[in-house]
Amino acid sequence: MNFNPWHDVEIGEGQPNVVNAIIEISKGSKTKYELDKKTGMLKLDRVLFSSIFYPANYGFIPRTLGDDHDPLDIVVISQCDIVPMCMVRARVIGVMRMVDHGEGDDKIIAVAEDDVSMSNVHNIDQLPPYFGSELKHFFEEYKALEEKTVLVEEFQDAAVARECVKHSIDNYIKVFC
């Protein structure tokens, strides 16, 4: 029996407020790992061409399907670098709307629910202003040397982010259930 974290891990009892996130890339990494949808293994997609690093832990929410036909992406803020393939309870606090290759590619912004340093953060406007700038800059630039462009739109609050999570759950159910 094959185990695939996209399909076989629960989204979390507290969704859409608190979801399970599967980390693919640790904060500070220059290595772009990605879930192989068929096998459920983590594969090396590429080493970033740019001299920048992931500003936060990055992964996906299981049992979701984004508009880009992949699991919904999630950025998990924590004081720690979280190892790839670790499951983290993540409190949804916002969303960064993005367009990549002409398709919607939302990035849910969350904090690690079990990180006490994040216990008072419930909405994106509670983060330091520089964090939003850093995250936006990263996603605008991380493909630039590959001559690919992405459009990063304004950050939206927790209520909009929770609607994005619900939408991606509905998409997943329509396609896979």
TrEMBL record:
SUPFAM superfamilies: Inorganic pyrophosphatase (SSF50324). Gene3D superfamilies: Inorganic pyrophosphatase (3.90.80.10). GO terms for molecular function: inorganic diphosphate phosphatase activity; magnesium ion binding. Mg(2+) 2 binds at residue 73. GO terms for biological process: phosphate-containing compound metabolic process. InterPro entries: Pyrophosphatase, Pyrophosphatase_sf. Pfam families: Pyrophosphatase. The keyword Disulfide bond does not apply. It is found in: Cytoplasm. Its EC number is 3.6.1.1. Its cofactor is Mg(2+). The keyword Lyase does not apply. Its main location: cytoplasm. Substrate binds at residues 32, 46, 58, 142. Homohexamer. Belongs to the PPase family. This is Inorganic pyrophosphatase. The gene is ppa.
